[in-house]
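Quick review question:
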């Protein structure tokens, strides 16, 4: 099309089409940017959801392992040793020697009657299992795994002092660690999303952690574990942390058995406030050779608990030397 001067120009409809096409391209650019933002947000939300799901699965499986350990204790009178073998098959190492290395491995799922996936955390790695397994404990104490010749035989004497005791410390990534307990019997550990220091389902060891607190948890010879909230902050005290630690105290394992009256025999009984016999003397000595109530020093006749000679103050005096039924209902968590 030409004008009066003979110059060509685009028809109005063509100009409109070009303008419309340019507007559409601008719109498309905006749409692409918006889609990128939405997809990025969606990916982050999906990742967060998957992580939350993995943590929830991990916590649920740790609770089920605890139940399985109590069931094993109920049946066998001991806790199992971990599977520490080079080729993992889910059976406990035997014999479980009195070494720290023999007390640290994966949960012995076959020994506990669990499927293999029951002892894998939400990221597919094996849980680490640590248990007090000393076989040369102090006089009067017993360990939680050995069932061999005396004195390395489990019995309820060892209600207060696992050998070796496992220490649990708590941190927040800001202040120094504080000790929660020095009396844990067992630990069920997930290495979290990074899996540092844990075993894969192929039996290989994941790479070691570069983070100080996670290194403690992943050390096979450790008798100390650290509990902290998740953080990926590089500057956190002790480093980034995503381990999930569940620890078991003596009362966590034994109180359910006492409550259901499964435990019926022991060699030492700790009454809540006093022996349950005539005269009811208090259960602790006041000094060397002196029961709390000298007038009733001969025996707790109704309960049949002869006194032992007091070695020092605060020594229990209501003891027996032979296996005796536990008076169900008298033991309390404080006695464990």
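Suggested answer, residue by residue:
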């Amino acid at each position: 099309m030409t004008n009066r001067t003979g110059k060509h120009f685009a028809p109005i409809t063509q100009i409109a089409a070009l303008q419309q096409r340019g507007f559409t391209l601008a719109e498309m650019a905006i749409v692409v940017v918006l889609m990128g933002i939405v997809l990025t947000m969606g990916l982050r939300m999906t990742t967060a959801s998957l992580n939350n799901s993995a943590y929830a699965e991990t916590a649920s499986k740790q609770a089920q392992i605890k139940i399985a350990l109590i069931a094993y204790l109920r049946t066998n009178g001991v806790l199992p040793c971990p599977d520490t073998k080079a080729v993992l098959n889910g059976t406990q190492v035997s014999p479980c020697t009195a070494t720290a290395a023999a007390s640290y491995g994966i949960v012995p799922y076959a020994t506990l009657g669990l499927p293999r996936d029951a002892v894998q955390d939400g990221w597919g790695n094996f849980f680490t299992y640590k248990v007090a397994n000393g076989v040369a404990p102090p006089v009067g104490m017993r360990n939680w795994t050995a069932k061999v010749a005396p004195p390395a035989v489990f019995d309820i004497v060892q209600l207060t002092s696992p050998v070796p005791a496992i220490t649990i410390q708590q941190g927040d990534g800001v202040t120094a660690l504080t000790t929660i307990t020095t009396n844990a019997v067992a630990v069920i550990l997930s290495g979290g999303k990074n899996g540092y220091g844990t075993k894969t389902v192929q039996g290989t060891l994941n790479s070691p952690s570069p983070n100080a607190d996670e290194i403690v948890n992943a050390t096979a010879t450790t008798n100390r574990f650290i509990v902290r909230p998740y953080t990926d902050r590089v500057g956190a005290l002790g480093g980034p942390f995503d381990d999930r630690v569940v620890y078991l105290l003596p009362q966590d394992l034994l109180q359910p058995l006492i409550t259901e009256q499964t435990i019926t025999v022991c060699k030492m009984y700790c009454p809540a406030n006093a022996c349950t016999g005539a005269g009811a003397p208090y259960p602790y000595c006041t000094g060397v050779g002196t029961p709390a109530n000298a007038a009733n020093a001969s025996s707790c006749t109704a309960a049949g608990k002869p006194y032992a000679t007091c070695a020092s103050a605060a020594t229990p005096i209501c003891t027996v030397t032979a296996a005796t039924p536990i008076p169900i209902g008298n033991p309390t968590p404080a006695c464990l």
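Why it works: The radius of gyration is 32 Å. The chain has two domains: 59-255, 264-336.
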